[in-house]
Design goal:
Arc Repressor Mutant, subunit A, sigma factor, transcription
Length: 175
């Protein structure tokens, strides 16, 4: 993106002063649409920065351009907020154990499951342990220079083997 050079500006192009004249109008516009003044101010500043970075914007189009960008940023704000809300709804909520015994059992099961993961072979073990450390399958694929599909396949196979080990252990404990 080319930065503005005031010496090379044509008379029809906008200056920062031209853009700044719209600040109060933009604040009124977005303040009615966003939940608080800090978000509104961020939106207006982003709008003005985008206009300042736009090298071919002329004065005739400045007002409508700023309005359009500000409105789209307001829409983006709510889309992002909605996306975060959906993510939180899908995210697994880890509750604190209700009793000390449950906490001890959960920790013991975690240790046992980690031992089972150590028994997996090759790529399955690597990807399961990486996921346990918080590394995504895509990041694992990048680190190990394999395709994401291969990493996801190894993760799926490893997870299936761990499920089978859990089922066998439960079957042996109850049978």
């Amino acid at each position: 993106m080319e930065l503005r050079n005031p010496a090379r500006r044509s008379p029809a192009e906008c200056s920062w002063e031209d853009i700044f004249q719209h600040q109060e109008r933009l604040m009124r516009l977005v303040r009615r649409r966003l939940p608080n003044s800090a978000d509104a101010e961020d939106c207006v500043q982003e709008t003005m920065m985008r206009a300042a970075a736009h090298t071919t914007l002329d004065r005739q189009r400045l007002g409508p351009f700023l309005t359009s960008v500000a409105m789209r940023l307001c829409i983006d704000f709510y889309r992002d907020q909605d996306r975060r809300k959906r993510l939180l709804q899908r995210a697994a909520v880890v509750d604190e154990p209700e009793t000390p015994e449950e906490g001890v059992c959960d920790e013991d099961f975690g240790r046992w499951l980690l031992q089972q993961a150590q028994l997996l072979r090759g790529r399955e073990q690597q990807v399961i342990l990486a996921r346990a450390d918080g590394i995504s399958t895509a990041e694992f694929a990048r680190i190990h220079k394999i395709s994401v599909k291969a990493a996801e396949g190894a993760f799926t196979r490893g997870r299936a083997r761990l499920r089978m080990a859990c089922a066998k252990a439960l079957e042996g404990a109850t049978g």
